[in-house]
Every structure is written in structure tokens, then in C-alpha cells.
TrEMBL record:
<protein>
    <submittedName>
        <fullName>Precorrin-6Y C(5,15)-methyltransferase (Decarboxylating)</fullName>
        <ecNumber>2.1.1.132</ecNumber>
    </submittedName>
</protein>
<dbReference type="GO" id="GO:0009236">
    <property type="term" value="P:cobalamin biosynthetic process"/>
</dbReference>
<dbReference type="InterPro" id="IPR020596">
    <property type="entry name" value="rRNA_Ade_Mease_Trfase_CS"/>
</dbReference>
<keyword id="KW-0808">Transferase</keyword>
<dbReference type="InterPro" id="IPR014777">
    <property type="entry name" value="4pyrrole_Mease_sub1"/>
</dbReference>
<comment type="pathway">
    <text>Cofactor biosynthesis; adenosylcobalamin biosynthesis.</text>
</comment>
<dbReference type="GO" id="GO:0000179">
    <property type="term" value="F:rRNA (adenine-N6,N6-)-dimethyltransferase activity"/>
</dbReference>
<feature type="domain" description="Tetrapyrrole methylase">
    <location>
        <begin position="7"/>
        <end position="195"/>
    </location>
</feature>
<dbReference type="InterPro" id="IPR014008">
    <property type="entry name" value="Cbl_synth_MTase_CbiT"/>
</dbReference>
<keyword id="KW-0489">Methyltransferase</keyword>
<keyword id="KW-0169">Cobalamin biosynthesis</keyword>
<dbReference type="InterPro" id="IPR035996">
    <property type="entry name" value="4pyrrol_Methylase_sf"/>
</dbReference>
<dbReference type="Pfam" id="PF01135">
    <property type="entry name" value="PCMT"/>
</dbReference>
<dbReference type="InterPro" id="IPR050714">
    <property type="entry name" value="Cobalamin_biosynth_MTase"/>
</dbReference>
<keyword id="KW-0949">S-adenosyl-L-methionine</keyword>
<dbReference type="InterPro" id="IPR029063">
    <property type="entry name" value="SAM-dependent_MTases_sf"/>
</dbReference>
<dbReference type="GO" id="GO:0046025">
    <property type="term" value="F:precorrin-6Y C5,15-methyltransferase (decarboxylating) activity"/>
</dbReference>
Length: 418
């Protein structure tokens, strides 16, 4: 016999009881306790049992729900589909799936695509409700159609202004407000017009669709040429060359949600590509030279990458307050390589990767000795790249500076059985 499901999680729209199924209405009728937001509870003035308002302290409310459910039926109200960016996951985690019956409604995102007349099986979904907009632009880069749940701090005009500031305007926007309610409104905008709009309601879904139908997803590995970045001179610029960048980034083992330190970021080329490889993560670009700091920021704007925080200061002094990294790249040390490696290995997540680029023999020797003193044997690659350059009607090879790439991982400590 299946266990009694004393808790029913009912999805509800802005039209209240009107669109509820008979099964959902029955769940409310049979309940001795009704739980939900103030707006949801107002849809049931005829309910005479105990009412519990969901606001703040959700853990405390769920503890109370678990206690009440031992003796009576409890109905929890939630917006749309509770299992789609809703409280459903928390309810199941706390109370157990075997005790909860879920009766979903169409989600706000489903309603938004329906109202805009757009298919949504090829869309990506992003919730900024209660979250920072940091990384929003970077995550957009790999999608042609996106549905975004917003709040007052990440409202559609705020996001549109962020897009405009970074030149990310080749989109059509739909703002769908109060979906399913009597004051429902669906409007289409250009990004520039949306940035200037001042009458968007707080209950909305933002849809973004690329305006160019021929747009294609960018390459998985950026492999950007140095000419794609503003950089310091002399000669071809003080910047990590793309072949070196490719091997270094591969050795860093970057995942979509990695936290990355780029020490001695310079023009920010490694930061930009690392950020593109970790759209749900964060990159800290540490640079002491003020000209490099400004160029790094310029390149972040030019490539519409917004999950990079530029830290103006000298390593290792500015590293102490940064969140622990999963991967670290050291492209410049200003003579402090030993101190940098020491603090990196103290803060690096177990299993995380450190990659150091060394140009001089002295820097390479010091890097090797510091790692060996920690009992680590690095993987070392001497990379010598020559590129074909025009010479009259011919091509000749021109050699780039050789680079030594040191790569090492922090050991994962395993527990010892007693």
C-alpha cells in the first residue's frame, strides 16, 4: 500500500480559482491547513481552516507543515508549476516525495511563450529572481531564445540597460506582465526601447529572441586572436598569445560553474576566455598596473562578458579576500611567484588546478622549486610557436617567444577509515 500523501502542492495562476482543476479544488476543500503567499491565500476567502503565510523563514514554515501533516491534510499553494523555479524542490527535500502530491498549473514561462506566440521547446531558462545579474550577458551568448524570471533589482529595463551598455542589442524582447490575471499585458520591444521603459509591473517574464535568424551558437573553445583585444604595446602587445592561452585554459580544467583567479591579468585575454568557458561561474582578474586594469575592463565591455570582477592591486596581497578558486592562472607575478603559489595552494579547492606561464629562466626555475618544496611534481610544457607571416609574395615563419607552462593539481584529501 502506498503511503498517505497528506500534503498537496497546488499550482495556481493569477486568475485564482478559475483555472484550477476539480482535483486541485478538492485538495483545498479537504485540507485542514492552507499554506501560501498572501496573494494566493486571498483567492480562498471561504476557507475556514488554519492559514499559514509563506514569507521569509521558509524552513520554519516547512517544519510546521511537517508537524501538522501528521494529523491532517495540508494544502500548499504556489505559483504556476511549483517544480519550475518554485518552492516544490524545497518542499520535497524537507518533507519527502512520498508524502507530497503535486498538482501543477502551466508555469509563467509557458504562459509567456503562449501569449507571445512563440514555440518554447528550444528556449533556455534563467531565473534572476532574488539573484544577482552578474554573468547575465555571458550566459546569453550561447542561446538564441531565453526566458528570464526577474525581480525589482533585475527588472527588464535594468537588464536591457546592461545589454545596451555592452552592445548586446541584436534581440527582440517581449515583456509579459500579470499573466493569467485581469490586467495581463504583453508588449514587444527593441532592447533600446525597453531600456528606456518606465512602466513595467513587478510580476513579469522577459523573453529574448535574437533578431538575426542566421545566428549560430559560438564555438565552444573561444581561441580568440590577440587582435580581438585592446592591449599594451610594444611590438605585438603584452598579451598571452592564443596558442598559449589554449593549452593553459585546457590545463586549468574549467567547468561551467568554476571560480577562477587570473593573476597578472594584463589585457584580460585569459579572463575573457575563461569567463566564456564558465558562464555560470566567476573570474577574478587581478592586475596591479593601472593601464592594464583599464584595458582589461575595456576588453570585458567589448566582448560583453560580465562574470569577471577586475581586482586592481598586487598579488598576493589582494588575494586573501577572494572566494576560494577552482582554477588559477598566473601570467605575471612581479617577482612574487613564491608568495603567490603559497597562498594559491592554501586557498585552492581540493582537486583544483594551478597553471603558471613562465617566460624567463629565472621565473621558471623558481616556480619549479616552489612546487617541489610542496612535494608536487608539475607537468611542464615548453611551447615554441611559429606563425606564417607574409614576405613579399611568399610566407615565412616568425617565431613567438617560447613559454614554459607549469600545470599542477591540488591533491584531494581522503578520509582514513578508523
Amino acid at each position: 500500500m502506498s503511503p498517505r500523501r497528506a500534503i498537496t502542492l497546488v499550482g495556481i495562476g493569477d486568475d485564482g480559482c478559475v483555472s484550477l482543476t476539480s482535483r486541485a479544488v478538492s485538495a483545498v476543500t479537504k485540507a485542514g491547513v492552507l499554506v501560501g503567499g498572501e496573494r494566493h491565500l486571498e483567492f480562498f476567502p471561504q476557507f475556514h481552516g488554519e492559514r499559514i503565510v509563506l514569507k521569509g523563514g521558509l524552513s520554519t514554515v516547512l517544519d510546521r507543515v511537517a508537524e501538522l501533516a501528521e494529523e491532517q491534510n495540508v494544502c500548499v499553494l504556489a505559483s504556476g508549476d511549483p517544480m519550475f523555479f518554485g518552492i516544490g524542490g524545497l518542499v520535497i527535500k524537507r518533507l519527502g516525495a512520498e508524502h507530497v502530491e503535486i498538482l501543477p498549473q502551466p508555469s509563467s514561462v509557458q504562459w509567456a511563450f503562449a501569449r507571445a506566440g512563440l514555440k518554447w521547446d528550444d528556449a533556455a531558462f534563467l531565473s534572476l529572481h532574488g539573484r544577482s545579474a552578474e554573468g547575465f550577458l555571458t550566459r546569453l551568448k550561447r542561446h538564441a531564445k531565453v526566458a528570464i524570471l526577474t525581480d525589482e533589482n533585475t527588472s527588464p529595463p535594468v537588464l536591457a540597460r546592461r545589454m545596451t551598455e555592452h552592445g548586446e542589442t541584436a534581440w527582440i524582447a517581449w515583456v509579459c506582465e500579470n499573466l493569467g490575471g485581469p490586467d495581463e499585458r504583453v508588449r514587444r520591444f527593441t532592447v533600446e526601447d525597453l531600456a528606456a521603459c518606465q512602466d513595467i509591473g513587478p510580476l513579469n517574464v522577459l523573453l529574448l529572441v535574437r533578431s538575426d535568424p542566421s545566428w549560430r551558437v559560438p564555438c565552444t573553445i573561444p581561441f580568440l586572436h590577440e587582435d580581438a583585444f585592446a592591449k599594451r604595446m610594444p611590438k605585438k602587445g603584452l598579451i598571452t598569445k592564443r596558442e598559449v592561452r589554449l593549452l593553459s585554459l585546457a590545463a586549468m580544467g574549467i567547468r561551467p560553474d568554476s571560480v577562477i583567479w587570473d593573476i597578472g591579468a594584463g589585457s584580460g585575454s585569459v579572463s575573457v576566455e575563461a569567463a566564456l568557458l564558465a558562464p555560470e561561474g566567476r573570474v577574478y582578474a587581478i592586475e596591479v598596473d593601472q593601464e592594464g586594469v583599464e584595458m582589461c575592463r575595456e576588453n570585458l565591455r567589448a566582448h560583453a562578458v560580465d562574470n569577471v570582477r577586475v581586482i586592481a592591486g598586487r598579488a598576493p596581497e589582494v588575494l586573501a579576500d577572494l572566494e576560494p578558486p577552482d582554477a588559477v592562472f598566473v601570467g605575471g607575478s612581479k617577482g612574487s611567484i613564491e608568495e603567490i603559489i603559497d597562498i594559491v595552494f592554501d586557498r585552492l579547492q581540493p582537486g583544483g588546478h594551478l597553471v603558471v606561464n613562465a617566460i624567463t629562466l629565472e621565473n621558471a626555475g623558481e616556480t619549479y622549486q616552489v612546487l617541489r618544496r610542496r612535494g608536487l611534481v608539475p607537468e611542464v610544457t615548453l611551447l615554441q610557436v611559429s606563425r606564417a607571416e607574409p614576405l613579399a609574395h611568399y610566407l615565412r615563419y616568425e617565431a613567438l617567444n617560447p613559454i614554459q607552462i607549469f600545470a599542477v593539481s591540488k591533491p584531494i584529501q581522503t578520509g582514513v577509515a578508523s
